[in-house]
User: What shape does this take?
Amino acid sequence: MALLLAEVPALPLNEAGKYVAAAYIVLFVIVLIYVAIMAIRLSRMERDLAELLELSQQSDSEHEDENRAASSIEPRAESSAV
Amino acid sequence: MSRTVRALLRKELLVELRTLESVPGMSLFAVSTFVVFHFALNRSSVEGDLAAGILWVTILFAAILGANRLFVADADQGGFDAFLLAPVDRSAMLIAKVVTMLCYLLALELVAVPAFALLLLGPSLGPVLGELLITLALADVGIAVIGTFVGALAVQTRARDLLGPLLALPLLIPIVIGGARATAPLLSMHPSGSPGRWLLTLGLYDLVFGLIAYALFDFLLED
Amino acid sequence: MYGRGLRSLSILTVAAMALALALVFFYAPLEAEQGFLQKIFYVHVPLAIIALCGFVLGGLFAIAHLRTRDPRWDMRSYVVIHMSLIFAIGTLITGSIWAKGSWGHWWVWSEPTLVSFLIVFLLYATYQPLRFAIEDPERQARYASVFAITAGAFVPMNFIAVRLSTAYLHPRTLGSSSNLPGSMALTLLVSMVALALLFATMCKYELTAKHTRAQVRALRRRLSGDDGRSPAGRGRSAAPSLHPSTRAGL
Assistant: This one.
């Protein structure tokens, strides 16, 4: 084992180190790029959902207005019929 | 089933004979390509690996040209719908088209190989003609199967002229490997070596791909 | 729900990757011929193997899709193939780096694995253009499945063919994975498990994201009624869409 270590470049900071580092960085970058893409999608989805929430609240309030309008019309109709 | 195949085959060959839209184009393309190679490589005579390479690349690209046009008429003029209405086995279309493509390739090689021998090839073809023909035949079956299959896949897409070759080329690489390796020793100054191993590879590839195409073709035709 | 096991899977992945990296740099011995450079082996080979398995898995999912016509299988096939393509690119880049370090060239034709990967990459790179070129979603899924099955069967055949073509000419450039001493074999195994978990996590992540997006779209359609308003300027994507009411796990 000592003989082996004596023969091979022991320090990682020489020629070989750069290539090894590059290879592992590639893996790291792939995962990071993927995280970034997911982050963009997530923020877009959040925006969409906020819009949809607003839309649903809008339609809810429209519904309320309609109901109120409908219930206020009927008593007047009764009184005019009489 | 064989009656259907024969009927379809007859139709294909008749259409080709009348319109002459594929085979003359493919053959002309091959001869032009040889000329281009002469200028591109700046060589008057080639042999061995280089010769095999030029021959196979040319045949491959000419074949792709032909495969592109194979299903276009059916797609554009309702041939698919008509076929689907008929109460026949759908794989008959695959077999008929593969045999058609095979005929196109044989016609192509009838022009291309002599042209190659005339224009670019150094050593003479005489002594090795038999083995060359067997190699060509085996490879042709593979090219026909893949070309037909990819043609059917690509014809229903929007960018059919681009997608067809793009899909076909990687799938055809093992055939090029087998064909070129088998042909190279045949085309050298001193023909040597037996292409047996490569012929076996070609044969096996043809078989496997043929089975896959046969199994999956129906799914391409449904509507 | 697609996201059900996602958290535990990701935690497991982190643990496995940490262990793998520790083993690679602190435990695995230096190789006699290539020295420190050989450490790339522990990221390149797992990427390669997992990408290949992913492609074949995509083909298997596609078979399930054609058999059952369930669009969820098509979705799984798409995601797995997409992820394998990314891993294949990683394989090519790390292999290239290794080649440059060993031989001074960025590309070597004598290494059959790299060459096969190039061919496989070229083939699967057409998968998305193919999907994108077909408008009708049912036909798109069907054709994509046919392609995935064909390409999945092609992968092993391609490897054999390329290996045959280089066998008698050059020795393997980047060293083979046979005759590995025990410690190296263990490190390789752990690396493979770690990267396989990473693959699974990213796939599951992707499926969950797609499913959620489909649900959001369905909600929008329901809320805006028959407005016919399409999702703001997102354009068509090549990915299959999933009906939001289907519930399934990966």
Summary: Chain A has one domain: 14-73. Residues 4-10 of chain A have pLDDT under 50 and may be disordered. Chain A has two helices and no strands. Residues 14-73 of chain A form one domain.
